[in-house]
Amino acid sequence: MTLLDNIKKNTKVVADSGDFGSIKEFTPQDSTTNPSLILAAAQLDSYSKLVQDAVDYGLKHDGKDQLEKTMDKLCVNFGTEILKII
Predict the structure, then answer these.
(1) What residue ranges do the domains of the chain occupy?
(2) Which of 4, 15, 36, 57 can pair with 23 through a Cys bridge, CB separation 3.0 to 4.6 Å?
């Protein structure tokens, strides 16, 4: 039994990451993330489909709303993928 397994017996393990690989590796019971972690993860090639989906979504909106809608969609995309893991 690993130290992490022992910790899981007495506490709730939460991932604070935008990296799905890390979340899968440590099998947390919950997860959280923040804009800086999503920004870092979004720059990785492995998440380019999530980024492109958000950009495509944002482009469907008026100019002044494009950036906000794109960022909202990007966060939703990452959150959805994280929920599939935990």
Answers:
(1) 18-85
(2) 15
Helices (H) and strands (E) counted in the chain, each on its own, are 5, 2
Element (H, E) at 46: none
42: which 2 tokens? 């979004």
CA distance linking residue 81 with residue 20, whole number of Å: 8
pLDDT for 41-55, tens place per residue? 899 999 999 999 999
Give pTM, 2 decimals: 0.77
DSSP state of 45: G
H or E element that contains 30: strand 30-32
Report whether 78 contacts 18 (CB < 8 A): yes
Amino acid at position 65, single letter: D
Report yes or no: 75 and 69 within 8 Å, Cβ to Cβ. no
3-state secondary structure of 16: strand
